[in-house]
Amino acid sequence: MKTGISIFFLLLLLFTALPASADHHNEEDRPAEHSEFTPAFRLASITKYRDWDFQLNLSGEFRNESADFYELQTVLYYRVFRHLKVGVLYSLQKGERHDDDWITEGDGWFWRDSSDRYENLIGADITPRALLPFLPGRNWLISAKSRYSYNLNNEQQKILFRPELSYFHMKNRSLRWSISSAYALYFPINFSDALLYEHGPYLSFTMHINKNLLLGLSGDYLMRNWSSSEAYKNAGGEYLIQDQRYRLGASLIWKIDIRDKKR
Question: What single-letter DSSP state applies at residue 234?
Answer without folding.
Answer: H
